[in-house]
Design goal:
54% helix; 10% strand; 2 domains; 7 helices; 263 residues
Length: 263
């Protein structure tokens, strides 16, 4: 990096493949004995011997995976300025497929050196079966515990809805200053120099108390479809103070300044 300095990009983030490293390390605890049982049965080895072989094989493949992950992440960030797309359940499942074949190849080569008396085909099939079982378990854990979309991704979608409500704050406030009341609806508000964004993913409603509601229409995102984000004015000393929040969504998905409860 010192030899080839370049501009730092704010969206580089944590390496895409490096996100799996904590999972890989924690997974060693159940994976090693699980694979040891398969190896002991298929290779006709004592369990302690199979446990040792499973330990060194998984340790070797995990270390190799760490190095490979770093190389891929650095390459992605060097070429594109970003470490890849948002990490999701689907991305994790897709990544596990090439990782399975890489792990199978690495562990087979290592174990073949430790059990030279056994046929190579038998060792290859045994390692394949052991890894197939452990990776099936990891895929099941991904499906059960990893959310379909990360909170970061949901916040990005919500920011669009918040921008829609923010676009109407100024005309609503100007109407209030002129008439000393809020418009009854969007029709009465008219178009005083600004057109709210027209987006099929959102629809806007305006209440007589100045509350602006953006209704989210995203059927493909079940966590957000049909939900609402709102902005509403509070009159203080002849001044409008805007607050925002959502009656439907987890406040943790909203910006810190937009977690009020609507009256």
């Amino acid at each position: 990096m010192l030899l080839a300095p370049s501009a730092a990009l704010a969206n580089s983030g944590i390496g895409y493949f490096m996100v799996l490293l904590p999972v890989m390390i924690v997974a060693l605890l159940p994976v090693i004995p699980l694979e040891a049982v398969v190896l002991a049965r298929l290779l006709k080895l004592p369990f302690k011997r199979a446990l040792y072989l499973a330990f060194i094989a998984n340790l070797w493949s995990t270390l190799a995976g760490i190095v490979l992950g770093i190389v891929i992440d650095v390459t992605l960030m060097g070429l594109t300025g970003s470490s890849g797309a948002e990490f999701t359940r689907g991305a994790a499942l897709v990544m596990l497929v090439p990782m399975f074949f890489i792990t199978w190849g690495l562990e087979y080569r290592l174990l073949k050196k430790h059990v030279v008396a056994l046929p190579a085909t038998r060792v290859r099939r045994s390692v394949f079966a052991a890894n197939l079982l452990s990776y099936a378990a990891m895929m099941a854990c991904v499906l059960i515990f990893l959310p379909e979309r990360s909170p970061t991704m949901l916040r990005a979608y919500l920011s669009e809805a918040l921008l829609v409500t923010s676009a109407l704050r100024t005309p609503v406030e100007e109407f209030w200053r002129l008439h000393k009341r809020f418009p009854a609806d969007l029709k009465e508000l008219g178009n005083p120099g600004i057109t709210p964004p027209i987006d099929p993913k959102h629809s806007i409603s305006l209440e007589s108390n100045g509350r602006i509601t953006s209704h989210i229409h995203r059927p493909e995102i079940t966590e957000l479809h049909g939900k609402r984000v709102q902005s509403w004015p509070v009159v203080q000393d002849d001044t409008l103070i805007w607050k925002c929040g959502s009656p439907d969504l987890d406040p943790r998905l909203l910006p810190l300044a937009c977690r009020e409860r609507a009256p």
